[in-house]
Amino acid sequence: MSSGIFILVALLAGLGLGYVLRRLQASYQVGSAEGKVQKMLDEAKNKEKELMLAAKTKALEITEEAKKQEKDFRDQIIKVEQRIERKENDLERKFADLEKKTQGLTQRSEAMKVKEDEIEQLRQQQVKKLEEVAGMDREEAKKILTEAVEKSISDDLVDLTRKLQAKAMDEADKVAREIVAEAIERCSAEVTTETTTTYVQLPSEEMKGRIIGKEGRNIKAFEQMLGVEVIVDDTPDTVVISGFNSIRRHVAKVALEKLIKDGRIHPAKIEEAHAKAKEEISKEIAEAGEQAVYELGITNFPPKLIYLVGRLKFRSSYGQNVLKHSIEMAKLAELMAKELGGADVNIVKQGALLHDIGKALDQDMEGTHVEIGREIAKKFGLSDKVINAIEAHHEDVAHNSIEAVIVDAADNISGSRPGARRESFEQYIKRLEELENLANSFKGVDKTYAIQGGREIRIFVKPEEMDDWGATKLAKDIAGRIQAELKYPGEIKVHVIRETRVMEYAR
Fold first, then answer.
1. Is residue 339 within 8 Å of residue 325, measured between CB atoms?
2. 456-461, strands of its sheet edge to edge
3. Confidence of residue 459 (pLDDT cuts 50, 70, 90)
C-alpha cells in the first residue's frame, strides 16, 4: 500500500511539475509574441510618422505650385484685361474719329453737290456759248469730239491688233496648213454634185395636152394640189416644174412621172399619184438620213432628227447638194480633229452634219437657216458645243470651242474646193460685177477684187486719202450696203486693205 501511495504521490508530483513547466513555456511564448507585436507597433508608428511627414511635405509642394500657377493665371488675366481695355479705348477713339470723318464727308458731299450744280450751270452756259461761237448744236459738236477721240486712239488700236494678229498667224499658220492639207488628201469627194432637177421629159408632144387637160383643168388641179407651178413652153418633149419648196417640187416631179407612165391624167388620178409620191419621197428622206448617220458612225440621234437630216437631200446651195456637202464636211472635220488632237471627234461630226440643218425647214418657216438650226438643236437636247458649231459657222456668233472652229473650217474647205459648187457663168459674172461696182462707188477706193466665187471682196484703198480708222469704217459701210442692196446666198467677207509701200535704192 505504501508503494502505491508513493506511486500516486510521484504521479501527482509529475503532473504538477508538468503543469508548471507548461505554464512557464506558455508564459514565455506569450511574452515573446507580445514583444513581437510591440515591436511591430513601434515600427508601424515610425512608418506612419515618416509617411505623414512625406505627405505634409508633398502637400506643401503642391500648395506652393498651385499658388504659383494661380498667381501666373491671375497675371495673365490682368494682362488680357489690360489689352482688352486698350483695344476698347482704341476702338472708341477710332469710332470717334470715324464719326468725325463721316460728318466731314457728309459736309464735303453736300458741298460737292452744290459745286456740281454750279459746275453744271457753268457747263450749260459754256455749251450755249460754244454753240453760239461754233455755229453748231450739241450733237454736231459731240460727233466732232467723238471722231477726234476715235482718231487719236485708232492708230494704237490698229498697231496692237496687227501685232496680235501677226503673232497668232505666225504660230498657227504652219500647223493649220498641214492639218488642212492632210484632211483634204485623206477625204475623197466628188468633183461635182447633184442638184434637184425640175425638168420632166415627155414621151411625146401629145402628152402636153393631157397634162393641161380640158380648159386647163388638169394642170390647175395639179398645181393647187402639189403647191407648184407647171410650165409648158415651146421646149419639145419637156415641161418645167417651178416652186420655192424643193421637196414639193421633187414630189411633183415624181407624181407627174407616174401620171405620164400611167397615161390617164385627171384630178382623181392626180390625187392618187400625189399620195404615192409623198409616201415614196418620205421613205427616201428617212433612208437618206439613216444612211448619213450610219456612214458617219453617229448613234445618238433620235428618229425625228435623222428624218430632218434626210430632208437635206433635196436641198441645194450653189448647185451643191446640202446633204452631201454636210457629210463631206463631217468627214473633213473628223480628220482635222484627229490630226489636231484635243477636240471631241463626236461633237465635231455632229456639228458638221447639222451645221445646215436649218435648211431642212427654212422653206416652211421664217428665219435664217442658222436661227432655225439652233432652235432644232436645242429642241432635241444637243450639247452646247454642237449648238455653238451650228450658229457660228457663218460667224454670226463667236466660236466658243475648238470643235466650232473645226466645223467652220471644214465648211469653207468643202464649199470652196474646185467643182464643189455650180452656177451659171452669166449669173456668176454679174454677181461679181455688182460687188465690185458697189465697192468702187465709195470714196478713197483704189482697186476692188471679188474672189472665192463672190464669198469675199478685197478692197484696196488709197493710203494718202484714208487712215486706218477710215479703212475700218469703210469695211463696215460696204458690208451694210451689200446687205441692203444685193441678193446673195450665205455671207460675203469684206476685206479692206490699206498699205503704204516705200522704196529706195542704194547706189
1. no
2. 445-451, 456-461, 493-497
3. very high
- Alpha-carbon distance values, 408 to 140, 333, 338 (Å): 43, 9, 16
Task: Return the H-helix or E-strand segment holding 135.
Answer: none
Highest mean pLDDT: which of 14-18, 300-304, 431-435? 300-304
Pairing label, strands 238-242, 493-497: unpaired
Alpha-carbon dihedral sign for residues 261, 262, 263, 269: negative
Top mean pLDDT of 129-138, 161-170, 403-412 is at: 403-412
Residues in Cβ contact with 277 at an 8 Å cutoff, skipping those fewer than 6 apart: 251, 252, 254, 255, 258
Residues 338-349 have a mean pLDDT of 85
pLDDT range class, residue 28, cuts 50, 70, 90 = low
Q: What is the amino acid identity at position 450?
A: A
Question: φ, ψ for residue 317 (rounded to 5)?
Answer: -140, 120
CATH class of the region 425-497: alpha beta
Q: How far apart are CA 288 and CA 310, in angstroms?
A: 5
Cell numbers for 188: 475623197
Give CATH superfamily name and number for 199-416: Hypothetical protein af1432 (1.10.3210.10)
What is the model's pTM? 0.49
Residues of the chain with CATH 1.10.3210.10: 199-416
Mean pLDDT (the chain, rounded)? 80
